[in-house]
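Chain and backbone:
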Amino acid sequence: MTADLGSASRSDCAPPGGPACSRRELLEALALAGACGLALAGGVALPACFAPDPLEEALRGFFRDRAAARAVGVEVLALEPKRARSEDLVARVVRDRAPQLRELARTDPQRLGEALRAQHRDDFAQGRVVVVRGWVLSETESALLALQSI
């Protein structure tokens, strides 16, 4: 990792009982380990490194009675526990309209609500429904409810 410093090998330079690598080598190794970890995580950045997604925050605030929404969301997730990731649930709600809905979340929450209610109605019209303990929910509604429970 470092340039060759003459004929001395690394073991010749290290004092007995001293560090086996230089500070630079340690930092390079840590940077490489971090890059490998990010690659193994599928390129997903650490959530703590970024600001919260305004769209996800708006979607989490969609229902007035959050406790009731959370309770139903738990039932929704019981049907599909593998989908208990907020990124997946947001994607199920926004579908191919993420940029438009994200902009509405930032600028016009009322229009975002209208768009989601229209999508909810369209889900029923197109037969995109989920049955949860006898309740017939639209796909949009079920994803919003599940998002409340995680």
Summary: The first strand starts at residue 129 and ends at 132. The beta strands are 129-132, 135-138. Residues 23-40 form the longest helix (18 residues). Helices lie at 10-13, 23-40, 54-60, 66-79, 86-94, 98-107, 109-126, 139-148.
